[in-house]
Amino acid sequence: MSLRLMSIGDMLIHMEIVGAAKGDYRMLFQNMKDLFSKADIVTCNQETLLTDRIPPSGFPIFATPTAVGHAELEAGGITPYSEKGKIDDLSTLAKIA
Question: Among 2, 39, 54, 64, which residue has the fewest nearby CB atoms (within 10 Å)?
């Protein structure tokens, strides 16, 4: 028995991508669906927080729209994981405010 694992990353948003996507982030993965279909499990390092509670933002305080997560799933069931990275950006912002 074998298992084919694929991992991509780092997934973090920049405002140029937000502007180009206009809310539909499937374009980030449109050329990779065939590749993803060859794996049993596809993961990605979701480096930033997925949230719609605040507007999308890039460096230095990243906030990624949840539509990016939906696009990850639609592209091939990508399973996001985080090793913290930029996930803590919003708590940093709260400490500054």
Answer: 2
Q: What is the mean pLDDT of each run of 10 residues along the chain (97 residues)?
A: 91 91 93 93 88 87 90 88 65 51
Token duo for residue 32:
């990779």
Q: How far apart are CA 31 and CA 13, in angstroms?
A: 18
Residue 44, CA distances (Å) to 12, 55, 64, 68, 95 in order: 11, 23, 14, 12, 29
Q: What is the pLDDT of residue 12?
A: 83
Q: How far is CA 19 from CA 13, 14, 24, in A?
A: 11, 9, 10
Strand partners, 9: 45
Total count of residues recorded for the chain: 97
Q: Tell me if 62 sits within 8 A of 23, measured CB to CB.
A: no
What 3-state DSSP class applies to 50? strand
